[in-house]
Structure formats: C-alpha cells, structure tokens
Amino acid sequence: MDPVTIKDIARALNLSTSTVSRALRDSYEISPETKRLVMEYAERLNYRPNPIALSLKGSSSKALAVIVPQIANNFFSQAINGIEAIAYNRGYHVIIFQTHESYEREMANVQQAVARRVDGLLLSLSSETSDVAHLHALHAQGVPLVLFDRVAPDLPVTQVVADNFGGAYAATSHLLQTGRRRIAHLTIPPYLSITQERLAGYRAALEQYGVAFDENLVRYGTFGPDEADELVEQLLAQEPRPDAFFTASDRLALGCLTALRKRGIRIPEDISLIGFTNLPAAEMLNPPLSTVTQPAQEIGQLAAERLIELIERKQKASPPATVKLPTTLLVRESSAPPVRAEADFRIGL
C-alpha cells in the first residue's frame, strides 16, 4: 500500500493541501475544528510525514541518530527501547549506529549521522574514546547533542546517567556489612566516566568502614573475550586472597563467576560476588547474582526527551545539565554473609 500523503488527506476532506499542512503543524491560522478533523483523519490512515521531502525543503528531517557501543549489550538495548518509545510518540524516526567499542567507528558514525541531516544525536562513548574533540566540534557547530551513560563531564551538553557512585557505594557497603574485607574490584577502562564514578563509590565505602584502599585489588579490563579469567587468576594469587569480588559490568560478573567456579571456589561460602548490571538472567544463575541495576529504559526516555526539547525549543530549552537517575541494589545469594553460608552448608541447606 502506498503511503498516505497530504494531498490524499486534502482530497478526502475537501481542503487545500496548504490548509492540511498547516493543520498538521498545529498552526494558529487554522481553526481548532479543522485541526481536529485533519488530525483524526491522518491518525486513522496512519499518516507519517515524509522525512526526505522535509529535508529537501530545508525543514526538520524528523530523525534522531543514536550511537551506542553495542546493541547486544542489554543496557543499551533497553535504553534504545526507551529512546524509540519517546521518539515515535513525538513523530521522530530513530537511526541506530554501533561503534563496537571503536573510537574510529564512533567518529565515522557521527560524520554519517550529520551527513544524513538528522535533527540531533544521542550518544554513549565507546570504550576507546578518551578524546572528545569531535564532539566539541559538533557542539560548536550547533548540532543538538545529548550524551547518556558513558559521558564526557567537560562537554557542555546535557548528559543523562545512572547514579554510578551511589550504586558502587551501596554494593561495596553491603559486602563490608557481611564481614568481607578483602574486596577486589574488576572494572573497565579507567578513562570512562562510569569507571571513575564506580571506583569512587567503591573507595568511599571502604573509607567509611575503615578499610584501607588497596590498588592491588583493582583490575581494569578492556572488553576483551574471556579476560576475566586472567584478572581473577592475578587476584587469587595474592596473599591473603580476596574474600569478595565487586565487578563494574555484567560481562565481568559472568566471567568472574565462571573463573571462580572453574577453580572450585564456592560462592558465597568462600568468596562473595556482586555485579553492576542490567542482566535479566542474574537471578537465574547458580547462585543467583547480587547486582546493582540501572534504570536503562528511563535513561533512554529522558535522554530522548531532552534532545527533542533542545531541537524544538532551541534557545528556550533547559540549559545543559547532568541528570542522574537512581540505581537499585538487589541482594541475592551470591553475596550472602560467610558465617550464615557456612552454617547453611553444615546443616545441608
């Protein structure tokens, strides 16, 4: 079926195409009754503006570019769901790009999005991106831009994030409250904003409980395959060895679980484990994984709302700000107190 056009609506309602066009734009020149007739008919026929035609006229393309490290990452797939829900309801299309954690691909994706004349960009930095000069240039050109999750604090644009500090503080505090004291932290590249915030929360909890920070208990990953095994091996070689692992990503949490189990280490009897993840299967693991969850869909929704506000209101839009959404600590069996775990083991529970 051919897409419905403004001419089709005008012919059906016996109106001029200019009247229909202005009614769809909610122009003050058109009466409320005519607007209602046009909008109801357009909705009934599932009318959508032609983005190419709009672009050729120099108007809005009604398209948003979303640039993420990897769609297969559960956090980003949930965030994209939130973005698309808001975009669709506001009449925008979404074009999705993946960087696959590559700085070069990120720059290429930005250039491609601008070449397609999108109205604005939503972006989460790749793990290789330590220099954001390309985004400063984009902002200087007046291109609407909002960052989410992995952000650049020195970039003067709106940035929507989870409370990474609070989540890491809560996770580490929980481990300390259960009696753990040698808490290893497996994390991701050090220049990423989420790495710095989660490490800061981990350190703050140690300080609060009077436990000295030991940088030998911190290991940085690079999103490589099966790298958790080597990191766990290095940490277990220490004396005394760690009695808990707090990981800063779902991938590292799963890798850590596999590495510990392979070495015959019981969780949580010997070592506690807690992640920072949106992994849906966390509660189905053996043992069920304690974790910090992020409001991924809400982050996507809010980021899209702020970008569309920036596009449509321009100078009247809210000033750049960092918007922080709360995280939630879910305590499950993988971080049970050692004394209780040992008692349960003795009585056969």
TrEMBL record:
Coiled coil: none annotated. CDD domains: HTH_LacI (cd01392), PBP1_LacI_sugar_binding-like (cd06267). This is LacI family transcriptional regulator. Gene3D superfamilies: 3.40.50.2300, lambda repressor-like DNA-binding domains. Keywords: DNA-binding, Transcription, Transcription regulation. Residues 4-58 form the HTH lacI-type domain. GO terms for molecular function: DNA-binding transcription activator activity; sigma factor activity; transcription cis-regulatory region binding. PANTHER family: HTH-TYPE TRANSCRIPTIONAL REGULATOR GALS, LACI-RELATED TRANSCRIPTIONAL REPRESSOR. InterPro entries: HTH_LacI, LacI/GalR-like_sensor, Lambda_DNA-bd_dom_sf, Peripla_BP_I, RNA_pol_sigma_54. It comes from Hymenobacter cyanobacteriorum. The keyword Transcription regulation applies. Pfam families: LacI, Peripla_BP_3.
